[in-house]
Fold this sequence. Notes:
There is one protein chain. With 179 residues, this protein is mainly α. The protein has eleven helices and no strands. The longest helix has 17 residues, at 131-147.
Amino acid sequence: RLGALFETYELYDDAAEAYERAVALAPGTPEPYAALSRLWLVRGEPEKALGALERMGAASPDDAGVQAALAQLLRNLGKTDEALAAIARACQLAPGHVRHHQVRADLLVEAGRLEDALAVRREAIGLMPNPVQQAEAVATLVSMHASAGKLDALRGREEKRLADAGGAGETVAMLILAR
């Protein structure tokens, strides 16, 4: 709280010191690390913000949200491989969290790994709780295949899956969009 108060009055050095004291008192608590990271970002020092998030990740290695936050900052700094490792860890820790899978797919596209991105997008579709979200995700998946010139391969796979599985809503939607 003291750090936030200092931030309000733009006493950033005092705020950083207060956050560091909070980290020292409760090293397993992610909030002071996040506040410190945010402070460094506001001050235009992304490498220091990354350092705070990396420390937070080390203090909370089993927190999917922490790993996802780390991935986002690494992505913003152009460190795609490191961001992929962090978001993969977030996906492993929270396998049902759709957004983590979507971010992972986006990072895979940025890394030029389209086939892996498509596989992750497909997994994410099955995790979505409602048909509207699934339809939007299927449209994105079809668009990714189309932009990669792989629409015929997608159609063939989905037609086979439809025949083997007796059909599923996402498959029908995917085939309709693909035509």
